[in-house]
Specification:
Layout (H helix, E strand, L loop, with lengths): L16 H68 L5 H21 L4 H27 L2 H10 L1 H81 L13 H55 L1 H18 L5 H29 L8 E4 H11 L1 H7 L2 E4 L4 E4 L1 H17 L8 E9 L2 E8 L31 H11 L4 E3 L7 E8 L15
Length: 525
């Protein structure tokens, strides 16, 4: 037997499966939380830049272009009115004023927080105000004739003023366009960073899954699989194979416990093997003893009975020839010898019948008890007629058993009921039968002398007699024979202690179609 395996102690040798799992889960949670935070930041960064580009940079450029368009419409209307004096040219001017006001109202909030854009807007508003105050306002307010003269006088100033305004608006739009392009680049960079971040997160998750799978394989499923394989090898008969534990501390302890159990089982197996050898030896001794008993039974049935018959025959001849010729004491001695020889012969026959139960007759089959009891009553007809006995019975079923042994059972029970009758009245005997599942319960009730409570178990022991042979003849084997027959058929037999009118013997037998328990045993030699 191999010795208990030892394990190399290390920094983590005392860690159990639960601790490894907790540590692994905690580490994975921290890594995933960090990656999730970085991914969330990348998403937030991309969203912020997108919102700045969509909600501020692009609308600011659009509104700046609308301001320019409104001012150009104003300049076109004023220039046409100043050249022709036609009032319909003032309609684009009036429309341009409204559009300018609307566009400026939308542009101002968009450039808050941006000093350069705010300065450009202020410059545009200042130059536009100067042009409107010096050129557009006076020309639009003058009459048709005065408007032409005023426009001609201020043509150079108006061109210089509006060119400066146009230059300022161009610079403003260029600045806004540059800021929008910068925001677009930042958005593309943020999206790229976000995509790389999520790619890294996916790779890390895959790596974590691989590490978890490999850790479970190496730390749990692998050791358990090896332990199960070793257990199957031991279960297959390799009892000398020791269990070697690997992995976490609790799995190694489990392997050590299983190894201890294996050692104990090996020890118990050795003890069991020794006990089996002893049982085999005892069985061999018992077989030899049964053979000797069989030989003894043969001697008792042949060799012993032959001289016994000779003694009985010659004592009877002696009694017939010399009876009355000798004195009374000699006649009495001869009578004692004849009676002793006859009783010895009856005892030997009863012992042989008792020993044959389950050994000689063992033909289990369906037996009709109506036929068995009818045959027994025919055999007892003379005794029944002499004693005036009345024997009744319920409808009797078919049971499983040996017909010869069952005939002996009913012969002994009914003859005992008639023999131990009360001297005050004629015997009345009744046989009852009731089925209980797979068994039949029978009862033989009589109105005889009964059996005292203290003897109701002893009467089933061989040679136990409650009366002298002068009062009731017999060898004391009848009820012992009944008990052996009933138990051989898988039933039980007892005296009913609550029955007070005489004796009531209750016993059970298997119903037809039920395999008796006795058939599971091998017949005795």
């Amino acid at each position: 037997m191999q010795s208990k395996p030892s394990y190399t102690e290390g920094a983590f040798s005392g860690w159990t499966t639960r601790r490894w799992l907790r540590t692994g889960v905690a580490t994975a949670a921290v890594v995933l939380a960090m990656l999730g935070s970085l991914g969330g930041w990348a998403m937030w960064r991309t969203s912020q830049i997108t919102a700045d580009l969509v909600d501020r940079r692009s609308p600011a450029l659009i509104q700046a272009m609308r301001v320019e368009q409104a001012l150009v419409n104003q300049e076109t209307g004023i220039r046409g009115y100043g050249l022709s004096g036609r009032s319909d040219f003032l309609q684009p001017y009036a429309q341009g004023l409204g559009d300018e006001k609307t566009a400026l109202g939308r542009l101002r909030p968009l450039v808050e927080g941006d000093p350069e854009a705010a300065a450009d807007l202020a410059e545009v508003e200042k130059l536009a105000g100067t042009w409107q105050r010096r050129i557009a306002g006076p020309v639009s307010a003058a009459s048709a004739g005065d408007a032409v003269k005023l426009a001609t006088d201020r043509a150079a100033e108006g061109k210089t003023s509006f060119d400066a305004l146009r230059h300022a608006m161009t610079r403003q739009q260029a600045q806004l366009e540059e800021e929008r392009a910068t925001a677009a680049r930042e958005l593309r960079q943020a999206e790229t960073l976000r995509n790389w971040m999520f790619a890294v997160i996916a790779v890390v998750i895959v790596l974590l899954a691989v590490l978890v799978f490999e850790g479970l394989r190496r730390g749990i499923t692998g050791p358990l699989s090896r332990l199960g394989s070793q257990a199957r090898d031991v279960a297959g008969g390799r009892f000398d194979l020791s269990f070697t534990g690997t992995g976490p501390a609790d799995l190694r302890r489990l392997a050590a416990d299983v190894e201890s159990m294996r050692r104990r089982l090996v020890e118990e197996l050795q003890v069991s093997e020794e006990a089996r050898q002893m049982v085999d030896e005892q069985a061999e001794d018992l077989k030899r003893s049964n053979t000797e008993l069989e030989q003894f039974a043969y001697v008792a049935s042949h060799d012993l009975q032959e001289p016994l018959r000779k003694v009985s025959s010659f004592t009877q001849l002696l009694q017939r020839r010399y009876g009355g010729q000798l004195d009374d004491r000699a006649d009495q001695y001869i009578s004692f010898a004849v009676d002793g020889a006859n009783r010895m012969q009856n005892l030997i026959n009863d012992l042989l019948a008792f020993s044959r139960v389950g050994r000689v007759h063992n033909d289990h089959r369906a037996v009709d008890l109506e036929e068995i009891v009818s045959r027994v009553l025919d055999d007892l007809s003379v005794t029944v007629e002499e004693t005036g006995a009345e024997i009744t019975h319920d409808p009797l079923p078919t049971v499983v058993g040996d017909p010869t042994q069952l005939g002996t059972l009913w012969q002994n029970l009914l003859s005992n009921a008639v023999k131990f009758r009360s001297p005050d009245h004629a015997p009345h005997i009744h046989i009852s039968a009731a089925q209980d599942g797979d068994t039949w319960e029978f009862a033989v009730s009589d109105n005889g002398i009964g059996i005292a409570a203290e003897f109701q178990e002893k009467v089933f022991v061989i040679f136990q007699r409650l009366h002298t042979k002068d009062a009731y003849p017999g060898t004391g084997i009848g009820l012992a024979m009944c008990k052996k027959v009933v138990e051989f058929h898988g039933g039980s037999i007892a005296i009913d202690p609550d029955y007070k009118l005489g004796t009531r013997v209750v016993f059970t037998l298997p119903a037809a179609g039920t395999e008796p328990a006795s058939e599971e045993r091998e017949p005795q030699p």
